[in-house]
Amino acid sequence: MATAGKVIRCRAAVAWAPGKPLSVEEVEVAPPKAGEVRIKIVATGICHTDEHILTGSFPNVEFPVIPGHEGAGIVESIGEGVTSVKPGDKVIPLCVPQCGKCSFCLNPESNFCQKCHISEPQNLLPDKTSRFSCKGKQIHHFMWVSTFAEYTVVPEYSVAKIDAAAPLDKVCLFGCGFSTGYGAAINTAKVKPGSTCAVFGLGGVGLSVVMGCKEAGASRIIAVDINKDKFAKAKELGATDCINPRDFKKPIQEVLTEMTGHGVDYSFEVTGHADTMIAALASCNMSTGVCVMVGVLNSGSEISIDPMLLLTGRTWKGTVLGGWKMRECLPKLVSSYLEKKFNSDLLITHTLPFARVNEGFELLRAGKSIRSVLLF
Ligand code: PAD
Ligand code: ZN
Ligand code: ZN
């Protein structure tokens, strides 16, 4: 490409300080160094985790920063030594890398690469420098992806090459929301056919959990949300019952236990609130129930539980990106999408030009969108 080796000036949404709206700016994006890939981002979704960044409640983030982690694009140029992708390839940048070398990458049961942001900050690229600047200031990367930029630079092991036929404005959701929810049911909980499930929170991630439970053959999927406007979509995607905790006087865990006899087989927390985390745990069967924590609690917050909840046999676990080893699994997930095994397009309620990024966040906060996709 004509731009290879040159600094590219393009648009990006910069979060200058916590609690401020994003500012669409012209930024400079330096060429990729050895082992890095520069990607032209075509589409990016807005995930609730980006909201945590804007409010400064996600661990290890440094400002100013270019957020965004649910994107898809085309390789513009590659640094020295890069072999797995070439200019023109369609790719999804990965907010959980797969370095292939650490003990978790080598363990078939883990997808939590030790180069993940939660163990090692990813505000700068691995050589501890940034490829972004704006108005003479260095801008930080976010989780090595920063998809709220028209061009971004990521390490080679944070990129998955996908089928050239994939529509980027749709499969961008695979960078986080869809893969997380769908995988939480299939990989993390390993939902069994004929089982009962409860999903707390019906945003883009929670509805993807509903899809995963359905795909796994669950016979009852109880969708729980305080916003009843989410129920129609939940039913369309496979929920058998929809309940609003605000419609009941008793705690929702008691309602779910009564509905199912002894509690559900699998419960999923996908709101990021302390009280629903405890409710989700208490909603699953006290002996064999599995509760999966997907939601991100504000950084620094804590919850306390009665250990009796676990003593009787419940399993309480978390998931990052739905347990997928992203570099090897994402291309297969995209192929399944192309084969119409599931329809993640139903999660996209709004498509907006990139300049309207703040409006996309307003829609999310107001509970009016599931996923807004921004197009460059
Ligand atoms: P979203 O804001 O689109 O959806 C959250 C939903 O929860 C909304 O429908 C709310 O109405 C609902 N809700 C809020 N409070 C309650 C309550 N008390 N009871 C029931 N429902 C409630 O968010 P999202 O789907 O983009 O993300 C959901 C969470 O998952 C969020 O915390 C995000 O940070 C986290 C996440 N985790 C991972 C991971 O890898 N673990 C990946 C992506 C997102
Ligand atoms: Zn996300
Ligand atoms: Zn690794």
TrEMBL record:
Pfam families: ADH_N (PF08240), ADH_zinc_N (PF00107). The keyword Zinc applies. GO terms for biological process: retinoic acid metabolic process; retinol metabolic process. PANTHER family: ALCOHOL DEHYDROGENASE, ALCOHOL DEHYDROGENASE 6 (CLASS V). GO terms for cellular component: cytosol. This is Alcohol dehydrogenase I. Signal peptide: none annotated. Its cofactor is Zn(2+). The lineage of its organism: Eukaryota, Metazoa, Chordata, Craniata, Vertebrata. Residues 19-374 form the Enoyl reductase (ER) domain.
